[in-house]
Amino acid sequence: MNIKWLFYLFCVFGIESNAQISDFRYYVDTLSSPYFSGRGYVEEGHLKAAKFLAEEFNEIGLKSIEKNNYLQEFPIDVNTFPYEINLSCSGQELIPGIDYLIEPSSGSLSGNFKIIPITFDNLLNAISDFKENNSSSILLINASKVDNKDTLSLYNELKMELSNIGPVIWLINSKLTWSVSDYELKYPVIQILSSVMDDNCKNIEVNIENVMRNSLMTNNVIGKIEGRKKKTLVLTAHYDHLGMMGSTLFPGANDNASGVSLLLNLAKYYTTIKCKYNMVFICFGAEETGLKGSKYFIEHPLIDLEKIKFLLNLDIVGTGGDGIALVNAKDQQKIQRKIIKINSKNGGFDKVKIRGQAPNSDHYWFSQKGISALFLYTLGGISAYHDPMDISSTLPLTKMDQLFDLIVKVLDEI
Are residues 67 and 91 in the same domain? Predict the structure, then answer.
């Protein structure tokens, strides 16, 4: 082959690779943008995201499972914070998402409250003091200096017990991390970083209003490609995230706009070739509320579960500098060996971490049904997780091409 043709091929493959990364970035940018409100349950972010994905499935060329409808609707209960949250300590306004978070099961609270520190040593006296000032006081548990795991566990139990009788401040020095709750407490629990709350803070002013939404309808988004044989390969990724805590946005770029982006790009690829097996692509809703979307799908399947040959779940895949991890790999030895062998041959990732089963993403309910299923996530890169800093602009996507190629080669061998 002459130099001219080598140069031509280099240019073509270079352009394709850049285009692929561009597609990955487009979907991550889009899904983590403010328009989708964190793909949660404030400003109907989850519905906007599901509608967008259904339109993308149609545009890509995926067929719907049922009567031109890509959506599978199901109900959830979810505690939300749709209104502005304010918190100040002795007159100093604290920044939500940076200085403090409201625990997701929290109830409403408004007013100015006297802070009553509580430990195991002063437990009875502090509770007595609190009851005397019930309507105007808030309990404070300082867990910022607790290193012992057993002691911390006891403090956590104390926190939850005390939240049944009144509002609680949970003072910590570790990373602030939020989530979603499907139930509500009578009172709020407020996580505050110890670095922003000194000993001079004797009173705290709070304005929190929660809205518990029962039987809220959300969706799974499902599309398929028909293959030559009756067996089915399934690719999944949850599209929901944490949404908003007042005006504080949780964009969810890595968790899990990255997984959805990879799934959409794989769907585009498989519509261009003749597939041996049926290919089903599912973007699950309500993963962050306790794997609710995948559980509903297993209980109300729209495909024959017995014909699933293999399921790969993609969640938090926007990095990869330190390798990849496979959850439930110890129970899937054959697939595990294929992935390790292909990765070793291609040199895509420095490490393949093998993990046992864990109920930490949407693969779980399928494997509980005896279906061959793995959950793949990437290692290294940014530390942002379940916080406002999980944004697209700092998500490297350095290994997306390699991960795309690895998955295609693994599925080809299956």
Answer: no
What per-residue confidence (pLDDT) applies to 6? 32
Q: pLDDT at position 21, please? A: 53
Do 276 and 407 sit in the same domain of this protein?
A: yes
CA-to-CA dists, residue 216 to 47, 48, 78, angstroms: 11, 14, 8
CA within 13 Å, CB half, 219: 18
- pTM, 2 dp: 0.92
Residues 234 and 187 in one domain: no
288 and 202 within one domain: no
**Full residue range of the structural domain in which residue 199 is found:** 84-208
In sequence order, which residues have a C-beta less than 8 Å from that of residue 191 and are 6 or more positions away?
Answer: 100, 101, 102, 103, 170, 172, 176
Q: Are residues 314 and 360 in the same domain?
A: yes
**How far is residue 49's CA from residue 38's CA, in Å, rounded to a whole number?**
9
Task: State residue 362 phi and psi, 5-degree precision.
Answer: -75, -10
Q: From CA 40, how far away is CA 43, in angstroms rounded?
A: 8
Q: CATH number for the domain including 191?
A: 3.50.30.30
Averaged pLDDT for residues 92-107? 96
Q: How many Å apart are CA 149 and CA 295, to the nearest integer?
A: 32
Inter-residue contact 247 to 296 (CB < 8 Å): no
Dist CA 165 CA 168 (whole Å): 9
Banded pLDDT at 38 (limits 50, 70, 90): very high
Please write the tens of the pLDDT for every residue from 300-346. 999 999 999 999 999 999 999 999 999 999 999 999 999 999 999 99
Buried-exposed string 199-228: b where 16+ CB fall within 10 A, e elsewhere? eebeebbbebebebbeebebbbbbbbbebe
Q: Are residues 287 and 378 in the same domain?
A: yes
Q: How far from chain centre, in Å, is Cα 270?
A: 26
Q: Which residues contact 292 (CB under 8 A, 6 or more apart)?
A: 74, 76, 182, 285, 286
Q: Tell me, yes or no, whether 40 and 133 share the same domain.
A: no
Buried b (16+ CB within 10 A) or exposed e, 83-95: eebebebeeeebe
